[in-house]
């Protein structure tokens, strides 16, 4: 290691920055975050630096560097655009044993400034020893996605309870086990979902009765998006990797399922059209029962849980039975399929609104407000509409939509099996007859479909239809 990693306390300590450009500004922002007393020497300032000076946040000397500037500083940053001046400042600082950083000249630095992930009081720092700031930033952004935004508040909670936990468990081993459970269990999740008060209550309960198996579990109702695993949210991925039980149905793509914990219990609950593996009420009860056994239950849903996903019904039961839960949005099929096929759902020239409806057939018909759906200047998206497509085409025309109205069918959107079929209300059924799209398929009706040919960007790889490496198994 070329550098010794430390975190320095510079609260109310006098720190000198020479230079008033963009780089100085970034360093000063960090110094101010750490509550340093900043003295800035520079004839000119950026807009933000001027604002901070006017707010009284830093002491600005509007002139060039003078040797005395270095006296009595705890830290020096040389950020002028003149390499000679920077070198001179560094030499003075070295002579006085003051830690000094020279921008872009690692050989002159006695310390370097890492890329940081700030979840104060938790701070993670990444350094490449000055070799590549860009690489450091890249690693930083990877870590950024792994460390939930709530870690700062979680650390505050640990701080609040630290002494009491210490008093409670005399053996360090027991203490460690207790904290492990807190940081990976319900308490941490309560904090991440913004329920700090509940988290505190749960800590109290755990301290009063540390038989940890009594702890109530939780249900994570997670939207898995339309199929491409890259479209998962950070939070979805984190919860997927921590759940003890995974309750999933047909619409969840296999590669996504494979991202859940491998040692988790997996429960398949349906549903194929008219062939429900488990009735909805049974699923609702199952979720509550598992959570009450203390398990962290992942209910994984295709798309978004609150859009034709029965998410509302599932958490209704949980709420009634006092089971904690959180709901994580996912990219709904309409958004995923539209973008991956190159069909903007709204467009100033074609559609001022978009409507999502279910095209599910009940007793051979669809109970929809066809007059509304036949209005011009809008896009209508039908979920679950493949079987009912003849009804959709017939009813729209019967309510005044022209037979030439463009329509698109997107099969298994966003996945390597995606196929897009376009046509008109008059002729799309012939295409379906010929091409036989496979479910799940989304239907988009509106003039925006005309843009598809021009705006399409995503290509499913050829031959994926043959399936040997097919990532999806609906
Ligand atoms: N909650 C889900 C929708 C469930 S209803 C969401 O927000 O996306 C199931 C219907 O969604 C399917 O019949 C189909 O119309 C649509 N759908 C889901 N995933 C799809 C995909 N990858 N490609 C095309 N349509 C999809």
UniProtKB/TrEMBL annotation:
One of its GO terms (molecular function) is sirohydrochlorin ferrochelatase activity. CDD domains: SUMT. The active site is at residues 249, 271. The keyword Transmembrane helix does not apply. Residues 217-474 are annotated as: Uroporphyrinogen-III C-methyltransferase. It holds the Pfam family CysG_dimeriser. SUPFAM superfamilies: NAD(P)-binding Rossmann-fold domains, Siroheme synthase middle domains-like, Tetrapyrrole methylase. It comes from the Bacteria. Signal peptide: none annotated. Residues 150-207 form the Sirohaem synthase dimerisation domain. One of its GO terms (biological process) is cobalamin biosynthetic process. Residues 1-203 are annotated as: Precorrin-2 dehydrogenase / sirohydrochlorin ferrochelatase. This is Siroheme synthase. It comes from Candidatus Thiodiazotropha endoloripes.
């Amino acid at each position: 290691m070329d550098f010794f990693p430390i975190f320095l306390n510079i609260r109310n300590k006098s720190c000198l920055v020479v230079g008033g450009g963009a780089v100085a500004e970034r360093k000063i922002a960090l110094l101010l975050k750490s509550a340093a007393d900043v003295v800035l020497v520079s004839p000119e300032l950026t807009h933000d630096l001027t604002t901070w000076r006017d707010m009284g946040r830093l002491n600005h000397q509007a002139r060039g560097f003078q040797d005395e500037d270095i006296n009595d500083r705890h830290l020096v940053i040389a950020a002028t655009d003149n390499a000679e001046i920077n070198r001179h400042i560094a030499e003075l600082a070295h002579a006085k044993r003051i830690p000094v950083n020279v921008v872009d000249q690692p050989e002159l630095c006695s310390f370097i400034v890492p890329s940081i992930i700030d979840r104060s009081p938790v701070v993670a720092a990444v350094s490449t020893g000055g070799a590549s700031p860009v690489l450091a930033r890249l690693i930083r952004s990877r870590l950024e996605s792994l460390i939930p935004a709530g870690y700062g508040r979680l650390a505050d909670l640990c701080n609040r309870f630290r002494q009491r936990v210490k008093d409670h468990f005399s053996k360090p081993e027991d203490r460690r086990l207790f904290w492990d459970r807190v940081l990976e269990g319900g308490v941490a999740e309560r904090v991440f979902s913004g329920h700090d008060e509940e988290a505190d209550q749960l800590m109290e309960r755990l301290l009063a009765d540390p038989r940890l198996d009594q702890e109530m579990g939780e249900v994570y109702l997670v939207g898995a998006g339309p199929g491409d695993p890259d479209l998962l949210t950070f939070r979805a991925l984190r919860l997927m990797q921590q759940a003890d039980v995974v309750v999933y149905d047909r619409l969840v793509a296999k590669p996504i399922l494979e991202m859940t914990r491998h040692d988790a219990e997996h429960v398949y609950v349906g549903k194929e059209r008219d062939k429900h593996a488990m009735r909805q009420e049974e699923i609702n009860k199952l979720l509550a029962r598992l959570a009450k056994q203390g398990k962290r239950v992942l209910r994984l849903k295709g798309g978004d849980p609150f859009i034709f996903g029965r998410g509302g019904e599932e958490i209704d039961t949980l709420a009634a039975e006092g089971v904690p839960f959180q709901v994580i949005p996912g990219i709904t099929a309409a958004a995923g399929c539209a973008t991956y096929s190159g069909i903007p759902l709204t467009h100033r020239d074609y559609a001022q609104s978009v409507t999502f409806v279910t095209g599910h057939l009940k007793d051979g018909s669809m109970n929809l407000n066809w007059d509304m759906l036949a209005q011009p200047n809008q896009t209508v998206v039908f979920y679950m509409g493949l079987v009912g497509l003849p009804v959709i085409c017939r009813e729209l025309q019967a309510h005044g939509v022209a037979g030439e109205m463009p329509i698109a069918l997107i099969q298994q959107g966003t996945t390597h099996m995606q196929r897009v079929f376009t046509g008109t209300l008059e002729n799309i059924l012939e295409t379906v007859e010929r091409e036989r799209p496979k479910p799940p398929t989304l239907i988009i009706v509106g003039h925006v479909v005309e843009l598809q040919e021009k705006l399409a960007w995503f290509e499913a790889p050829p031959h994926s239809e043959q399936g040997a490496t097919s990532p999806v198994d609906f």
